[in-house]
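Lab meeting, item 3. Inverse folding demo.
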């Protein structure tokens, strides 16, 4: 199955040359890292957190995670965990075969990893329907394709994001990677507070950022409930923390936080974006 791009021309440029220029703009933006990264071979990172809005809003913040990812070196496979905004498909949905297309080319799904991941979990379904119109996985691919084309993905969409579900997904990812002896990188796709004043969004989001940096997914859940924080991808983040710890991560680092207000100048109702790494 070929998954066609759903948000090219909406969330990011739909022409290859302009898309590459936009990605460069994200890295060089005043809210971005300020420069382009060079491919390294450290292989120390276990996972990252990056936002998934339109590139003109969240791209410079996402570029911080991708800067560190590129410096660390590409793995064989990226496990991309994303929320399900559309409500279609099953509660935990994996597209287990085929390829994803973007204006920068095609990316193959790691079918071996996907098959084994399903075997190691009781809750992951094979369901491409959840991914057909969902943007929160797709927007990460051009950032990866800009730097390298020889990688595979495992795209997993989470409509169900409770603690138990995230724990099973995280444990299953780590178990599969160890069983296959495969080097992976997990990408947790999320935005933070949605449509709150800047002061409220920043306060609430920094509570979560500190929890995530401390690899404490339970405190993150507690703060989300306590302050009613509208973070859309808390399940993917929790699963990434759990899997990263199982794979040896000892700490998380907050790289950058900003809001739509920092881009548009309108701080009355903002969306928060954060980038972090686990190592």
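The presenter then showed the designed sequence:
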């Amino acid at each position: 199955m070929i998954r066609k791009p759903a948000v090219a021309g909406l969330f990011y440029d739909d022409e290859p040359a302009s898309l590459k220029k936009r990605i460069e703009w994200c890295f060089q933006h005043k809210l971005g890292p300020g420069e382009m990264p060079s491919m390294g071979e450290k292989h120390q990172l276990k996972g990252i957190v990056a936002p998934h809005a339109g590139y003109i809003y969240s791209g410079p913040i996402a570029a911080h995670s991708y800067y560190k990812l590129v410096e660390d070196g590409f793995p064989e496979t990226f496990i991309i965990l994303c929320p399900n905004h559309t409500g279609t498909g099953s509660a935990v949905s994996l597209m287990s075969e085929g390829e994803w297309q973007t204006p920068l080319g095609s990316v193959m799904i790691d079918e071996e990893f996907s098959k084994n991941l399903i075997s190691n979990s009781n809750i992951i379904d094979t369901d491409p329907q959840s991914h057909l119109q969902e943007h929160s996985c797709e927007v990460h691919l051009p950032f990866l394709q800009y730097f390298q084309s020889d990688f595979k993905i495992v795209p997993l969409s989470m409509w169900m994001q409770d603690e138990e579900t995230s724990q099973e997904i995280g444990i299953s990812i780590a178990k599969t990677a160890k069983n296959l002896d495969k080097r992976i990188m997990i990408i947790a796709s999320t935005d933070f507070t949605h449509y709150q004043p800047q002061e409220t969004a920043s306060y609430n989001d920094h509570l979560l950022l500190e929890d995530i940096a401390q690899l404490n997914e339970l405190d993150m859940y507690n703060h989300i409930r306590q302050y009613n924080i509208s973070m859309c991808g808390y399940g993917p983040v929790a699963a990434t923390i759990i899997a990263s710890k199982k794979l040896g991560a000892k700490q998380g680092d907050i790289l950058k936080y900003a809001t739509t207000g920092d881009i548009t100048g309108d701080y009355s109702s903002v969306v928060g974006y954060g980038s972090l790494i686990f190592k």
